[in-house]
Here is the input.
Amino acid sequence: MALIRRVATARDVAAVDALLARSYPVLLKPDYPPSVLVTILPLISRAQPSLVTCGTYHVVEEGGTILAAGGWTRGAPRGGAVTPGLGHIRHVVTDHTRTREGLGRRLMGDIMSEARAAGMGRLEALSTLTAEPFYAAMGFEAREAVDVPIGPAGLPFRAVRMEASL
Here is the structure.
């Protein structure tokens, strides 16, 4: 079957939610201790409907099954400021059973091209420790380790702030 990349819609929220819920626990397990995952996974393994439907979030599907998802926004995560020329990579995931097949690379290539066409000169990603090598292969450079506050309690989640020039 052919792979299709398309802009996500409200009809995709449940499928993206399921993709995050089944893949993040497997993908993140090698890089985070169980004590972190047990508290953080329920908070980050949920699709954000406003992000999925923002018009710059995409899915890659095959036979109606979503295998990868991700996008970019002008505003920083958690309602952060908009900086002219700076876009933010958001909630990228590939099905854990389909990694190393180029799905993420194809998706990120399209996201980066779209952001460039929209006038972005740089992209920033708050990468999990697991995804840092992937983003580096896509041309992102690590800038600093950060603790991202997650959920209402602001639980710290170790990430790497990465940046790429477009």
Observations:
- Residues 3-123 form a domain with the Aminopeptidase fold (CATH 3.40.630.30).
- The beta strands are 3-7, 57-62, 65-73, 86-94, 122-127, 141-150, 155-165.
